Amino acid sequence: MKKKSKRKRYKKAGWIFLLAVLLIMGAVFYLKKTVFKPFTPDTTVYIYIDEKRDFDDIVHQLKEKAGLPSEKIFNMLAKRMNYLSNIKTGCYAVKNGMTMIELIRILRAGMQTPVNLTFNNIRTKTDLVSRLSQQLMLDSVSLMNALNDLEKVEKFGFDTCTVVCMFIPNTYEVYWDIGVDKLLSRMKREYDIFWNAERKAKAQKIGLTPVEVSILASIVEEEATYPDEYPVIAGLYLNRLHKGMKLEADPTVKFAVGDFSLQRILFKHLEVDSPYNTYKYAGLPPGPIRIPSIEAIDAVLSPQQHGYLFMCAKDDLSGRHNFASTHTEHARNAVRYQRALDGRKIY
């Protein structure tokens, strides 16, 4: 009897153990299928959390971009892991194979992924602010106010006209939620790196400060359609500056008028009273007329040596220029160009 009872107990214990194993296996299977079910995007995707810190928007982005495995489980985990009260701004990567728990830990810790901030081919301060605010969480009004704040920009060594010289066109790795002050500080660090001892020495050799180089480079770049003409035009304007001649650069007139689309500069445009009008005022204008590229800056730092003092667009309207050392030669080039404009009815 005792042996029977003992066997019965063993059998019962065996069934209980087997049931427990099955329950554990079932729990593990359930967790793998729900809590630990990974994201499976084809490529790494990114979600952006702005200053509103809207949890519903985060869930929406995960559903739309990353194929959120389970909204119900994600919401439960977010509450259990105390994420709702620890939402941080930024850009966050969601990778294939990442679990919801792993992602919440990253979001909660604010372990964001840097973004590539790129800007080039920018004319005005307004264009710059627009380009930057499109790529970052920055408020465009706050950034524009900062760039127009003389006291603030003077701390970086600029005024409100020259501060855009601090932005060297390139690609920079920054956090998406970078603030205005941190962005300006970062751009100043990059500016100081760019203006190394070699470039400063070249600027000194041609008699210009780094800011003046950027101002002249902006004119050179606006004047030239083809980069291979940058060094030639840079040399021409430096020749005029060193002789005390007015630059008489058409792009500065367009900037002064506020119309870059002008195809023909008329006498009425030349009379515009603006410090940017280099037909009216000698020397460089108070600031750049665009944010010059690195290529244009380096062209000014390494100008072509020649005796040219004048330039005029070619009459084939190719965008290239005829260069001249004398006013007589320049006048002939100008007549041919004006006739070409007349022939095409460009007024």
| Average pLDDT rating | 91
Assign an overall shape.
elongated
Please identify the oligomeric state.
single chain
Strand order of the largest sheet: 1-2
Tell me the helix content: 40-55%
| Topology pattern, helix = H, strand = E | HEHHEHEHHHEHHHHHHHEEH
Instruction: Quickly count the helices.
Output: 15
Assess the beta-strand content as a share of residues: 5-15%
Number of self-contained structural domains:
3
- The biggest beta sheet, please? 2 strands, antiparallel
Poorly predicted runs of 5 or more residues = 17-33
Number of strands: 6
Distance between the termini: 119 Å
Based on secondary structure, the structural category is mainly alpha
Q: Over all CA atoms, what is the radius of gyration? A: 32 Å
Structure commentary:
By secondary structure, this protein is mainly alpha-helical. The chain folds into three domains: 45-109, Dna Ligase, domain 1 (2-Layer Sandwich); 115-194, no CATH class; 197-308, no CATH class. 51% of the residues lie in helices and 8% in strands. It contains 15 helices and six strands. Strands 1-2 form a two-stranded antiparallel sheet. Strands 3-4 form a two-stranded antiparallel sheet. A hairpin with a 7-residue loop joins strand 5 and strand 6. The longest helix is centred in the first third of the chain and has 32 residues, at 2-33. The model is unreliable at 17-33 (pLDDT under 50).
